[in-house]
Amino acid sequence: MKALLLNGQSHHGWLASSPLVKKILEQTCLFSVDIKTRPPKGSDMSGFRPEFEAYDLIVLDDGGDPWSDATNAAFVDYISAGGGVALFHHSCQLFHQWQEFNEIMGLAGWGKRPASVGPRLYWRDGEVVRDTGPGDAGDCLDLRENQIIVRDPAHPITKGLPEKWLHATDELYFNLRGPAKNLHVLATAYVEPQAEAHYNDSGFGSGEHEPVLFTVDYGKGRCFNTTLGHVEGGTPADTRADSMECVGFITTFQRGCEWAASGNVTQDVPADFPAEDAISIREKCELPSAA
Length: 291
Hints:
Layout: E1 2-8, H1 14-26, E2 32-37, E3 57-62, H2 69-80, E4 84-88, H3 99-105, E5 120-124, E6 127-131, E7 139-150, E8 164-174, E9 183-191, E10 208-218, E11 221-226, H4 242-245, H5 247-262
Parallel strand pairs: 1-2, 1-3, 3-4, 4-11
Antiparallel strand pairs: 5-6, 7-8, 7-9, 9-10, 10-11
């Protein structure tokens, strides 16, 4: 399958994360990955016209200026007709005024998104709860290890994963809002109410189990969205990428991308997948050595 990775302009470390995404996907032997970088911030975007239809999967490691109307329309046509899209971490900050994109990614943060864009989603007592009340859209806790809880063990992406696993040092997003149409929560992480936060008025966590892995059906296409994968800005040589070196991130991203591109998952859960109370790291996302 062919994947197109779009990057550029983000204040996150896309110069470091994009090569890792390419490596992670090509390690599956299921994908070949092309990378296309958007023009610098403030540039004319009319000439930025990726050939979406030539690919089975579009991956967004992107942030910044809106695309042109023609590119927006081509992207919507692509996924409506059956294309696959994968987003991770900071991509949920994209295009807050583009309604179709908000529906494709399901939940988002920042970008002055009011309550009118849709509810927050939490997991309580075995089901999804939609909070339509007022409040901020998007916040995060500082870098820390986070326990991930699988909420749908039967979905192809999460099938075979342990119920709970410890994710390596990463930001933890919460209070995301969006249309949340045709959205399916796969996994959550708990945000303690006493945890210090940065962007909401209270300055504290939500006290809720927040979605971290979820899917969205849009037309005939599929979107996989993970809030994990924070990478600090900088060059690849001086950037921390613990979050993307976590075998939990690698595995769920690989499986999520295969599902988005094909509707199926053929990959097994690796032997070095994290445990409930122990992280598992592959430095520079290298494959483990053969025993």
